[in-house]
Amino acid sequence: MKQIVNGIAIGLITLLAMAASLFVSRLIWLGFHHHYREMPQGYGHGQISMKVMNWGPNEGDVELVGVPIGARSESAWTWSPPKRIHYRKLRLEGSPSRLELTVDAVEGTYQLGETTGPLTPEVLARWMTRTAAGSKQAHVRETADWLIAVIAAANMGTLPPPRHHLHGNDSFAEQLSIPVPDDAHVTLLHGLSRIGFWWLDGVFLASIPATVMWFVRRRTRRAEQLTDLS
């Protein structure tokens, strides 16, 4: 009975020590690294949220106010921070007067309600303006052409990289070498959502069974010594 109680006690102590070790390793990580930096290893996904605005150069032009685009990559385990995050499905969010447009960046197709087909600048321009006349305006077509290039970049994993702060027009020009249209304004939030496992966690976790084995062996030797003396 005494051995069972000792075994349960050792098991509970081991679990508490493992939880404490993970907590301590996180404190050490956060103490020496920026809080928004991702863990080197981990399981998770990338996520983007982008808005595009273009009021047009002339009075009376169709105003493209806050065209919202969102996407999430497939979750995966990586042993190092991913250099490229690939997005297959992108959502161009709708409004009370506009349905959501879903884009398959790999196939180059779109779905709008029950309608599907190849994704073209004409389709995007018509979706953004909801009118045939508005979709033919120069700044609208230029924005649609630029969005096609951005969707291709999302598929290839060449969007501006994840970071805590927003990306703007300059980030796209530097990263993609695709200048943002003159009258457009773009904001991109690109982040990682990961459950990280740092090598320090492994060091702490490996030390737990080693410590428990040392404790058990010490107790066993002491019990043998007491038996020999008796």
Structure described in brief:
The chain is an alpha+beta fold. Helix content is about 45%, strand content about 25%.
User: What string, H for helix and E for strand, traces the elements in order?
Assistant: HEEEEEEEHHHHEH
Structural class, from secondary structure content? alpha+beta
Biggest sheet descriptor: 8 strands, antiparallel
Helix content: 40-55%
**How many structural domains in the coordinates?**
2
Count up the helices. Answer: 6
Q: Could you characterize what this model shows?
A:
This protein is of the alpha+beta class. It folds into two domains: 2-35 and 198-229; 42-196, no CATH class. Helices cover 44% and strands 23% of the residues. Strands 1, 2, 3, 4, 5, 6, 7 and 8 form an eight-stranded antiparallel sheet that branches. Helix 1 (2-32) runs antiparallel to helix 6 (199-229) and helix 2 (121-129) packs across helix 4 (138-156). The longest helix is centred in the N-terminal third of the chain and has 31 residues, at 2-32. The chain is rod-shaped.
List the helices and strands and how they pair.
Blueprint: H1 2-32, E1 42-54, E2 64-72, E3 76-78, E4 89-92, E5 101-104, E6 109-112, E7 115-118, H2 121-129, H3 132-135, H4 138-156, H5 169-176, E8 184-196, H6 199-229
Antiparallel strand pairs: 1-2, 1-3, 1-8, 2-4, 4-5, 5-6, 6-7
